[in-house]
Input
Amino acid sequence: MIAPSKIKKLDEVVVNRIAAGEVIQRPANALKELIENSLDAKASNIQVIVKEGGLKLLQIQDNGTGIRKDDMGIVCERFTTSKLEKFEDLQAIATFGFRGEALASISHVAQLTITTKTIDEKCAYKASYSDGKLKAPPVSCAGNQGTTISVENLFYNIPTRKKALCSASEEFSKIAEVITRYAVHNPSVGFGLKKQGETKTHVRTPHSSTKTNNIRVLYGNPVARELLEIDLKDDKHNFKLHALITNPNYSNKRMTLLLFINHRLVDSSMIKKMIEDLYSVHLPKKTHPWCYLSLEIDPANVDVNVHPTKHEVRFLHEDSIIEKVKIALDEKLSGVNASRTFYMQSKLPNVDVTKEVLKEVLPEYDTKQTDKTKKLYAHEMVRTSSTDQKLDKFSFTINPALRENKTSSEEAKENKSKDDKVEDDSRNSKNETAENASQKNQPIAEEKNESTSLAKSKISDNSVVEADNSTCFMLSDSDESDVEKEKNNQSIDIEIVAESTMTADRALKNIYKRWGSGENDEISPKNIENEETDKELREKSMTNSDESLNESPVKGTQLTEFKSYSVNDFRREVKLKSVLMLRKEVEDNYHAGLREILSNLTFVGCIDERFSLVQSGVNLYICNTQKLAEELFYEIMLYDFANYGVIKFSEPLPLYDLAMLGLETKEAGWTEEDGTKEELAKSVQERLSEKMDMLKEYFSIVIDKKGNLKSLPILLDKYFPREGGLPLYILSLSTQVDWEAEKPCFKGICRETAKFYSQIDSDSETFDWKHVTEHILYSAIKESLLPPKEFAHDSTILEIASLPDLYKVFERC
Output
């Protein structure tokens, strides 16, 4: 019989290495512990340098509170910490670290060096550690406030563990993943990651950012633009939830879950399973969402001392809390009424289609054919009669039409006659010739100048317009003039007038019969001639459709002079070289193709305050109204320089009070490191008061000697900026403008003013924001805006539908 072995106490070195192997499993685990130490030290900037996946070098530098010189002797010993004194403190732990094992474990499996400086010490101190002990007393050196920890030759004394690790590239990707997740959860902290010897930064987030912005930087726009935000507070189980999850428009081959419980990055198989079950009814099979969840639970209900690496936690009422989270997420996902959306890259304004392709897919297309009897297909026509079909048929009301008062019996009678006429028109349109189809509705547009102002004044007097079930399209410029010419109080059908060579002659005759075309109800030879010219231009455009969108404006394109929107009766000539140079930059950088789209746009409707739909030719575009408006106001600031009207306040507004209000907002990004709010507000008042003569002379921004704001410029007639944005605007004028050089100063003032004016006030009780957007903003955009080239690539103007392409889809169906 074999005798039992004698029980012996393990050597302390062996014990420490075994424990270190449990805590530090790979470089990413070591980095996680070090990042949490930096966050505990209130760092606002964390930079990481890696060599060979962290095995040769893993260095982290922060600007936190640092380590006292007296504590450097025991900082790497086991169970030494400044965050816990007794076991009961675990019930209210508010820090990441609590065991005091991280640095000790790293020092037993790597060569550790710490350089640190506190705010009270005059210099930094550097020390090296091995097996938890100091190799030599700390030495003084130069250094910034904070701590720099260098971990070299990780697992040099545990070769088995080192061989079991993945390749250096895979270890680096795991390190990047850890930094990325902490960067999303801590947007107020700037993170950076790069490899030693390289200038390229693999991960970089700004200081004082937001979670959504960091997600956009780290995971890309496909994730950021599909996010849904959920906030939940439950008093029964004493927890709060903040989540950012993707809607059903986004899916990926693998699931990405960022889970933080009490700000600690953890894993939870139960929460992961809950999310997979939840999305199984929203996403196709074998596709997964992107989710960020942050749970804040009462520390007394959470057990953080479950796993050596602290990547798991246990908490009370786990099933109930997860069920409540599931219900909140499910309600948000179920409330999304958008269907699956597929984005495609479009080239604006030209379509990459050659004549050969057109002849193949459209047999009737032949530029050499002069026969006027070829068949007219439906997809070649642009609807011009509002009685053909309404947007409200799809429960999509864009802009209520302005209609005359009439009795219900008259409406019923008129609608019946219109329906009968539509049926007759649809039957006869199939037999029309190409000669009739080549006519346009230009006679209507010729009357625009005579009565546009009258129609606009009528619309402005009825800024709140009642909706009508039979009419929900926009009022075009030519239609506005005809509204004033309507006789006998007849009903007015608002129509979309779109430019096309394929407009049917019958549609024009119906328009003339119902409205009248002024002096002549016939289609003039002049219009036919113009139509042929337009056709030649379009064919020429198709021939050159292979030209890249990024090219400079087409040679020979005549740049229309920017219209003045000044309400003043006189105009001062501007000879300042800096302003003339800024104007030239706008003209040199504008995109001719986008300008053509905007100059021919027909407003369809507002999606919300930021986005609108417009039609140009046979294409439908979604436009970022705020960005277009900002560029419009910037150009107005330049071209009407020193010629603005004045918006006078009934009572002067103190700059100091405005600055204080601005500093209270989250967008200002104020921190205690910036100084007190009172001092900053005082400096804002002093800076702007110092420049009050220049602001009054050139920008109509009047500031009196007491530091009160008395007026702002009028950039567009009948347009007023959002009052709630004034405090931030005053802050931006003081802090974001380079006041030392003339050209940057003027550019900064114009740009910040444009940003302020581009904020549409959707809560105004005085003005209908949809009316302002359509009839003031987009009217000026159509008339004058010179869109910069970057608008063609940043989705400011994005083609979402094309009539010929849609017809191809319907044919395949």
The two ends are 85 Å apart (CA to CA). The first helix runs from residue 12 to 23.
